[in-house]
Amino acid sequence: MEFAYFQRTDSMNKAVALLALVTLVAGCKTTPPTPQEQSLTGMRCRIFATTKDISRDWVEYIREASDNGNPQCQIALGVLYEFGRGLPQDMGKAKALYESVAADDAAGYEQLARMAEEGSGQVADASEARRLYQRVQPGSAYSDARLARLMEEGRGGPQDLSGAMTHYLNASRYVGDTPWEGVQRVRAQGLAMTAEQVERYNTIWYESTGNSLSGTVGDMEFALKKQIKPGSASKPVTLEIKGKPGSLVPEIILVESSGNAAVDQAVLEAFGNYRFPAEPIMKAGQESWSSKLSVRAGLN
Known about the structure:
By secondary structure, the chain is mostly helical. The protein has two domains: about 10-195, Serine Threonine Protein Phosphatase 5, Tetratricopeptide repeat (Alpha Horseshoe); about 215-295. Helix content is about 55%, strand content about 5%. The chain contains twelve helices and three strands, in the order αααααααααααββαβ. It has helices at about 10-25, 35-50, 55-65, 70-85, 90-100, 105-120, 125-135, 140-155, 160-170, 180-190, 195-225, 260-270, and strands at about 235-245, 250-255, 290-295. Strands 2-1-3 form a three-stranded antiparallel β-sheet, covered by helices on one side. Strand 1 (about 235-245) and strand 2 form a beta hairpin. The longest helix has 30 residues, at about 195-225. It is flat, with a radius of gyration of 25 Å. It starts with 9 loop residues before the first helix and ends in a 5-residue tail after the last strand.
């Protein structure tokens, strides 16, 4: 399983070579690091620790930064020991490093919680994992999601569907991600959501739907450039995208014409395959939701 706090992204992959070069330059400094330099050092350590074939120089960089008290690098060194990456595997040293960080930085608790949950170097202990995840500072999507799953399944303590819902919603970043799937599982069990939970749910839905519509419009405008001659329209096409409960298929309504019926029709047809990513939770008496948008097609 990919370990907490060091989940590698594509952008991080692309940064490895650049950071390695910067490291050579930064290594020449002898003055105390600024907070910005400390943060950059921590970023290097995080990235280097996720490199499969980590070099000896990078291991030594992480070790030196860890010895100098950088908490992110201390966790990175713990990761190297825990997984035997560039160093002999040593669970005791890994756990000791995580514990030293936890005294001042809750990120250490996240690693300890993961070890307890997965049984990494110890007997799996869901109760201890649940306790430690709760000590991680708010804002950690990983810990929120893991704690939510434990609460949902009643592992390490009593089942708590409302608590699971709150933590899944805190962890979710967009419709369709893993925490969002957890939200749907808990909803399917008949949980009555609080007003705060409904508000957070709809915020995620709104942001995801907005991004979805914006991306669709951008793709559509690019595609229509090849089909519609510039100057064919006098103004953008304005549409209303309307949704109703029970269906992700929207009703597409022409609100304002481009001045050219053929352009209007091309836009309407291009939007024909669009689907909402999910449904919002509507207020009592609300029968639909909608959004207006403009599509620039056939303009000079």
